[in-house]
Description:
Oligomer: heterodimer
Largest interface: A-B, 33 and 38 residues
Shape of chain B: globular
Number of helices of chain B: 8
Shape of chain A: globular
Strand order of the largest sheet of chain B: 2-1-3-4-8-7
CATH architecture of chain A: 3-Layer(aba) Sandwich
CATH topology of chain A: Rossmann fold
Helix content of chain B: 40-55%
Helix content of chain A: 40-55%
Number of strands of chain B: 8
Radius of gyration of chain B: 16 Å
Amino acid sequence: MVPVGSEAEGVSIAAGAALGGKVVASYMEETGVYVSCYNILPVGVRYGVPMLLLVSYVGSFADRRNSFLYVQRGFKLIPQLEALDVQYQVIRNGEGLERKVKDAVRMMNSLKQPVALLFTEDFTL
Amino acid sequence: MIRYDCFEWLAPQMTDQIVVTSLSGQRVEWGHLSKRDADLNLGSMGNALAVGIGLALALPHRKVFVFESDGSVLLSLFNLPTLANLNPPNMAVFVFDNQAYSGTRISYPSATAGKTDLAAIARGSGIEHSVTVTELEDFKREASGALSESGLRFVVCKIEESLGHRKITRSNMDLLETKYRFVRYLERTEGKPIFQGRG
Lengths: 125, 199
């Protein structure tokens, strides 16, 4: 695990490690997607580097602790990912979680692109 | 000091070191002087240093050189505390600081033309070997040290705002070609697959 000062550098460090042969994931709250979109686009998407984005999807409809603090950035998260052309899945609970993560890893390796898993509902309790 | 002179001296010294370059002059001049498969000419501001960190962590037995600019480092200053605390001994960062917004063509003085000292910021972030060089001989000494010695080093190279790179015919190699050239080189030399997945 590599602690970083910003999700932006987290994505770029992960990209470097992926190019060096590591299977990588970058863990962030959804604000991190906004912070790192500049890094996701030129390094992750344009360069075509497989990485998993593990995103805490607060501010969604299913967020059990939704609040005025999160909701604006929450409902704009998916349009943001779609604008970046990042494939994603919304994960609402722990059922079949291991398989869903493996599916995402297979997808990112097939696409050679960043792929996002958005954790909400039970994960927001 | 002129950046091209630094690269012209360094390029023939390189063997199996990985090089990551940022954008503009670093990318164009290094790409012109060095045609090695171990060069990752990233072509993006604010990303080369972090990508270099990732490579240095993934491949701790290989030396990673990063060629940055003042503008690119300022864009991602949060890299410096991260770099200091990770302290990869196999990494050397050379920041070519022309003290100007050169890429915009306006050549307006940048922060490092004023009060900002990037080497001091790096030292304050915790990078012990953080120095500023202004002469080609000093660059050669630091680069030779980076080639032969272990230990993280951060070298700010104060350079003239040369426009020489604009006269160099730019490579038409697409970024994806650059990536695959680099990754296939690592697969050959490391003896392992980099990209996973079925064909």
